[in-house]
Design a protein that fits this description.
alpha/beta; 17 helices; 55% helix
């Protein structure tokens, strides 16, 4: 059965009129939601911990900034735009003591609620509004009069108005322009983690690096390997994004199509799908979540080492030089891009 898709006509921004919306954190999703909602006519405040580097940034954007606990106390709807691993501590220290009956907790990812690192009281609504794209795209699309598709879910609904609030928030950030799908915290969390790990991030980067290494180790120039295995990937993904896999195949050569359908399944074969199912099982059982929380609590040692190893891969150096020859490409620094709180 097809999922229900909500659009602008299904959401009413008046649901948020007269309410104070607090965005806790001013990183990737936080800044996008805050700015979009403000420009949609909503009353938005920002909650940040004392000494946060985001305080002057948020003030410069015209927001009133309060300590996290004070923002929670003042708000009717509280968006927890804090990294997953830091939410439990922030909840215990600043959020829970200032929650009261009738307030709404909002998340853009179900991790903390689904895996119970955060357990809210029964007298508050708990909802999810999850744009299917990074914050800077949510912001850019909104400014262009477009929107990033989003998911909404309701975990607790004592007010009986939780879904209307979720849809109104989704409209305020531009999501209903593109379409909003109803889901659950469980489904959003498990599918999001699976997609990130096996296809969108983990799978794609591992595939690109393996292809690059295969060509370079076989004596081909690194620049050729970069173009064939990384640079052109965007062109193919854009075609799939616009017209699906069959639409992409319609736009490429006969030779490319034959290589796609005849060789691709030999690379990404049944053994890969078997390992994907194992990864999904680790997500569903909570094993991945426990390991990730433990990694955070131990100081991110393995995490930082693996990131550093990736940064030092030769594909990064070759790519930086080649991108430098293309002045029309938007340059983005990889430093300091973690979600701020």
């Amino acid at each position: 059965m097809p999922a229900k898709v909500y659009t602008d006509n299904d959401a009413n921004l008046n649901v948020l009129r007269g309410k104070t919306l607090a965005v806790l954190g001013f990183g990737s999703q936080g800044h996008a939601h805050a700015l979009n909602l403000k420009e949609s006519g909503c009353n938005v405040i920002i909650g940040l911990y004392e000494g946060s580097k985001s305080i002057p940034v948020a003030k410069e954007k015209g927001f009133k900034v309060y300590p996290t606990g004070e923002a929670v106390r003042r708000a009717d709807v509280i968006f927890v735009a804090i990294p997953d691993t830091k939410q439990a501590k922030a909840y215990e220290k600043d959020i829970a003591p200032n929650l009261s009956e009738g307030k709404t907790l909002l998340f853009s990812h179900g991790f903390s609620i689904h895996f119970k690192t955060v357990v809210p009281p029964k007298n508050v609504d708990v909802i999810l509004v999850a744009p299917k794209g990074p914050g800077h795209i949510v912001r850019r699309q909104y400014l262009e009069g477009k929107g990033v598709p989003a998911l909404v879910a309701v975990y607790q609904n004592p007010s009986k108005r939780a879904k209307q609030v979720a849809l109104a928030w989704a409209k305020g950030i531009g999501g209903t322009r593109a379409g909003v799908i109803a889901t659950t915290f469980k489904e959003e969390t498990e599918t999001d983690l699976f997609g990130e790990q096996t296809v969108l991030c983990g799978g794609a980067t591992a595939l690109v690096q393996a292809g690059y290494e295969t060509l370079v180790e076989s004596g081909y120039q690194p620049e050729m390997a970069y173009f064939e295995c990384l640079h052109e990937l965007k062109l193919i993904v854009d075609l799939m994004n616009e017209a699906g896999i069959s639409g992409m195949r319609f736009s490429i050569s006969e030779t490319a199509k034959w290589g796609d359908v005849a060789v691709g399944p030999k690379i990404i074969d049944a053994s890969v799908k078997k390992r994907m199912k194992a990864a999904l099982k680790d997500i569903q059982s909570g094993k991945f979540a426990k390991g990730w929380v433990a990694e955070y609590e131990s100081g991110y040692k393995k995490y930082n080492a693996l990131l550093k190893k990736g940064e030092n891969h030769s594909i990064e150096k070759v790519g930086a030089r080649l991108r430098g020859l293309m002045p029309w490409m938007q340059k983005r620094s990889v430093k300091g891009v973690q979600a701020a709180y």
